[in-house]
């Protein structure tokens, strides 16, 4: 491996413009594709195989109108005023009529007319389950006009704090108004899911509503599902790059050398993320997909180039090599470590594919390709850029400074630090385990879900809308459930009295606010209902309600001969959390086994891979513990722009574990391969640990600081999901690099000494020698020099 990379590095150094032109051409192709195809991102997070998705798939086949996405608009009045004045009711009515007149939106009145249900307004308000069934399976008509009186009667309780909005004695379809007149809620349904809507449909809805209420004093707040899906990338990420640039200058001592890692990293993310956007019109891609690729691409792109440039400069300073020869050897030795470090990251990301969740698979593929490009660029474009610089990579001033330092035989902080760790190795091991163990305690109480308006910041429209709906109608209106009742006998028909009985049985549950029949399919064997819980979308009681409704042993299933399915955004989020928790152990097992094999090949040791994995488990548990304390419990959350606690995003454990495992193994490879190199070249026992640490620690610390800075830049974004991911990754790198790799690893290595490199002889013969340290390459070069 090292010989091949050495030849590639020398070729790129000798013919820089050929390699540079090739990469510029690739960038040009990506830009051209973007110009032709445009880009499209979706908010859809489809979880195949879950109960809620199965119900949606069935509805799409049997009752396609009912499988469409839902949206809402909240109307509010100024403080201390009411909405139910003639002028404001008229404005809201205009808004509703305009919305129902748009394409791709179900109009309840048209559905009723098509079904031949020409009922008077008074009859419509009083209709029961039997009358709805007579509409021959047309969905959504009554759903959007929940009758408060009927709901109260069905529940056998007191009147709810809302009713239908009326104009000239007629109900405004789909609009509920709080009894205090402060807010009104329009709920409606699309004919298809939001990600299938043509571009501009949601914008027309928002425009229709805002134009209709303009000048009336009514404030319209569209739901998040009506807002255009944007890539949550902003100016905050630039701050991370600026910090990275400062660290590079401090580490390399040269503006010219510091600029190279940033240039190569930008090439990598430009091609990786740009290519993903160019293909986004052909595949479904969530808004998180390019963000993840950008996060990882910037971090590893800068780090990988830093390792190679630092190695080249060391070879020039320490051995007096020419820039050309040093570049070739740097690519051959440090480049080998870069290759295998990148491979561990790619394996960790590819592990997401086995989960079988499409949006996670797409995220993994785009991020993996971006990492692969970063490795290729570090091994080809970087030496080409070094070829353009030539001997200027190390200025005369820098060479003289290094010569004087070497002559004085001064030892830096790293040498003092590692010698202290070696001396007090038992104390260091116990202290690191204790600190990380305490930090991991909150992880026991970690709750998974999808952050909603309930956990959004107080100054956001999402939070204001959530709070207003909760106060005026109840928390459950923020997350309605869609219930599907299917006759156990495929040829059977659900009778009107059965519908009524199902409604009354569901209404008995203390966590149910309102149940409304929506209609049936043409065969009469599938009925759908709208259910408003009394609790919020992320509350534990709502999860228990969904589980109870789905139970095959429920009274409804036994007494009415039907099977209940539950779907809707709230149910989908519940199922997503459950599915991800179920596959998490399998995912961890796969990536760890594959990565252990790679580490075994790289280090030719049994202990080192096992130690690396145990150290990572400590760091990831501590990461989840602190993340839970900050985002769920609210500890010091104001420092990170969060003012309300809530559940952690359901796919954070899998996503963060996979990414951090790959990146943690990067530092393991670079740090311990330096110790291995010292051992191979004659240092023994604790001396190899100290010498290897001295050689690699400075650049590993710089790389870790850069990664933390890049990920921390995403913490300041407005999107709570991206904020949580950025925080967890930045914190995880901080813990793993400085507590585990910089402290625990040298302490354990010193504890075992030369035994750390023990490998059974039979296994040593079976394993291929990858020559990551470049021992064979150096021997070959020395033989040539001797001739």
UniProtKB/TrEMBL annotation:
<feature type="domain" description="SSD">
    <location>
        <begin position="255"/>
        <end position="388"/>
    </location>
</feature>
<feature type="compositionally biased region" description="Low complexity">
    <location>
        <begin position="133"/>
        <end position="149"/>
    </location>
</feature>
<dbReference type="InterPro" id="IPR001036">
    <property type="entry name" value="Acrflvin-R"/>
</dbReference>
<feature type="transmembrane region" description="Helical">
    <location>
        <begin position="584"/>
        <end position="603"/>
    </location>
</feature>
<feature type="transmembrane region" description="Helical">
    <location>
        <begin position="238"/>
        <end position="258"/>
    </location>
</feature>
<dbReference type="InterPro" id="IPR000731">
    <property type="entry name" value="SSD"/>
</dbReference>
<keyword id="KW-1003">Cell membrane</keyword>
<keyword id="KW-0812">Transmembrane</keyword>
<dbReference type="Pfam" id="PF03176">
    <property type="entry name" value="MMPL"/>
</dbReference>
<feature type="transmembrane region" description="Helical">
    <location>
        <begin position="648"/>
        <end position="675"/>
    </location>
</feature>
<dbReference type="GO" id="GO:0005886">
    <property type="term" value="C:plasma membrane"/>
</dbReference>
<feature type="region of interest" description="Disordered">
    <location>
        <begin position="125"/>
        <end position="155"/>
    </location>
</feature>
<dbReference type="InterPro" id="IPR050545">
    <property type="entry name" value="Mycobact_MmpL"/>
</dbReference>
<feature type="transmembrane region" description="Helical">
    <location>
        <begin position="363"/>
        <end position="389"/>
    </location>
</feature>
<feature type="transmembrane region" description="Helical">
    <location>
        <begin position="696"/>
        <end position="715"/>
    </location>
</feature>
<feature type="transmembrane region" description="Helical">
    <location>
        <begin position="615"/>
        <end position="636"/>
    </location>
</feature>
<dbReference type="GO" id="GO:0022857">
    <property type="term" value="F:transmembrane transporter activity"/>
</dbReference>
<feature type="transmembrane region" description="Helical">
    <location>
        <begin position="330"/>
        <end position="357"/>
    </location>
</feature>
<keyword id="KW-0472">Membrane</keyword>
<feature type="transmembrane region" description="Helical">
    <location>
        <begin position="16"/>
        <end position="36"/>
    </location>
</feature>
<feature type="transmembrane region" description="Helical">
    <location>
        <begin position="291"/>
        <end position="309"/>
    </location>
</feature>
<feature type="transmembrane region" description="Helical">
    <location>
        <begin position="265"/>
        <end position="285"/>
    </location>
</feature>
<keyword id="KW-1133">Transmembrane helix</keyword>
<protein>
    <submittedName>
        <fullName>MMPL family transporter</fullName>
    </submittedName>
</protein>
<feature type="transmembrane region" description="Helical">
    <location>
        <begin position="727"/>
        <end position="752"/>
    </location>
</feature>
<dbReference type="InterPro" id="IPR004869">
    <property type="entry name" value="MMPL_dom"/>
</dbReference>
<feature type="domain" description="SSD">
    <location>
        <begin position="587"/>
        <end position="751"/>
    </location>
</feature>
<feature type="transmembrane region" description="Helical">
    <location>
        <begin position="426"/>
        <end position="444"/>
    </location>
</feature>
């Amino acid at each position: 491996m090292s010989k091949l990379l050495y030849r590639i590095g020398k070729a790129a150094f000798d013919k820089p413009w050929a390699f540079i032109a090739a990469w510029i051409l690739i960038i040009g192709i990506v830009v051209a594709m973007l110009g032709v195809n445009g880009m499209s991102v979706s908010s859809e997070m489809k979880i195949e195989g879950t109960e809620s998705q199965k119900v949606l798939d069935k509805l799409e086949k049997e009752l396609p109108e009912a499988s469409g996405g839902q949206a809402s608009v909240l109307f509010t009045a100024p403080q201390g005023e009411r909405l139910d004045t003639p002028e404001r009711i008229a404005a809201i009515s205009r808004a509703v009529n305009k919305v129902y007149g748009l394409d791709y939106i179900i109009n309840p009145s048209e559905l009723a007319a098509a079904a031949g249900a020409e009922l008077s307004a008074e009859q419509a308000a009083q209709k029961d389950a039997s009358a709805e069934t007579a509409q021959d399976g047309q969905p959504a008509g009554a759903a959007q006009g929940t009758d408060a009186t009927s709901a109260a009667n069905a529940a056998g309780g007191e009147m709810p704090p809302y009713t239908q909005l009326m104009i000239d004695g007629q109900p405004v379809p789909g609009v509920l108004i709080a009894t205090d007149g402060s807010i009104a809620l329009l709920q409606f349904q699309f004919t298809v899911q939001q990600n299938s809507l043509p571009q501009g449909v949601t914008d027309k809805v928002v425009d229709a509503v805002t134009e209709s209420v303009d000048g009336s004093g009514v404030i319209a707040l569209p739901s998040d599902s009506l807002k255009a899906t944007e890539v949550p990338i902003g100016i905050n990420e630039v701050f991370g790059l600026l910090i990275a640039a400062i660290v590079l200058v401090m580490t390399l001592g040269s503006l010219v050398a510091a600029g190279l890692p940033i240039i190569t990293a930008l090439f990598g993310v430009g091609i990786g993320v740009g290519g993903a956007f160019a293909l986004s019109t052909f595949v479904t891609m969530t808004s998180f997909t390019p963000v993840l690729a950008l996060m990882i691409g910037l971090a590893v792109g800068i780090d990988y180039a830093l390792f190679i440039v630092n190695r080249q400069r060391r070879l020039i300073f320490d051995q007096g090599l020419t820039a050309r020869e040093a570049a070739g050897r740097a690519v051959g030795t440090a480049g080998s470590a870069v290759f295998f470090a990148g491979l561990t990251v790619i394996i960790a990301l590819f592990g997401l594919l086995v989960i079988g969740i499409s949006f996670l698979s797409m995220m993994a593929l785009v991020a993996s390709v971006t990492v692969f490009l970063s490795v290729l660029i570090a091994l080809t474009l970087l030496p080409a850029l070094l070829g353009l610089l030539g001997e200027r990579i190390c200025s005369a001033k820098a060479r003289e400074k290094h010569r004087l330092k070497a002559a004085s035989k001064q030892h830096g902080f790293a040498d003092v630090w590692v010698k202290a760790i070696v001396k007090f190795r038992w104390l260091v091991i116990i202290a690191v385990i204790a600190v990380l163990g305490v930090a991991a305690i909150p992880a026991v109480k970690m709750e998974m879900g999808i952050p909603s308006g309930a956990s959004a910041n107080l100054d956001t429209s999402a939070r204001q809308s959530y709070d207003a709906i909760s106060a005026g109608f109840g928390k459950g209106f923020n997350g309605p459930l869609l219930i599907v009742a299917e006759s156990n006998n495929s040829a059977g028909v659900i009778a009107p009295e059965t519908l009524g009985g199902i409604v009354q049985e569901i209404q008995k549950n203390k966590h149910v606010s309102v149940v409304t029949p929506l209609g049936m399919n043409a065969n009469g064997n599938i009925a759908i209902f709208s259910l408003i819980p009394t609790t919020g979308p992320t509350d534990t009681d709502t999860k228990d309600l969904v589980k109870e409704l789905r139970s095959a042993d429920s009274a409804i299933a036994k007494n009415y001969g039907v099977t209940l399915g539950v779907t809707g955004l709230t149910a989908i989020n519940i199922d997503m959390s459950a599915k991800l928790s179920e596959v998490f152990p399998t995912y961890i097992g796969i990536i760890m086994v594959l990565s252990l094999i790679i580490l075994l090949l790289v280090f030719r040791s049994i202990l080192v891979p096992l130690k690396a994995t145990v150290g990572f488990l400590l760091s990831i548990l501590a990461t989840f513990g602190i993340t839970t304390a900050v985002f769920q419990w609210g500890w010091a959350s104001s420092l990170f722009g969060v003012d309300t606690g809530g559940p952690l995003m359901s796919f954070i454990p899998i996503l963060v574990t996979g990414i951090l495992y790959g990146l943690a193994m990067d530092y393991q490879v670079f740090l311990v391969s330096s110790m291995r190199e010292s051992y191979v070249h004659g240092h023994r026992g604790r001396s190899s640990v100290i010498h290897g640490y001295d050689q690699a620690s400075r650049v590993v610390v710089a790389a870790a600081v850069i990664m933390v800075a890049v990920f921390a830049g995403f913490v300041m974004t407005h999107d709570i999901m991206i904020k949580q991911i950025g925080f967890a990754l930045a914190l995880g790198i901080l813990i793993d690099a400085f507590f585990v790799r910089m402290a625990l690893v040298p302490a354990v290595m010193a504890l075992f000494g030369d035994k750390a490199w023990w490998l059974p002889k039979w296994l040593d013969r079976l394993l291929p020698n990858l020559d990551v340290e470049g021992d064979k390459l150096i021997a070959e070069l020395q033989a040539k020099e001797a001739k």
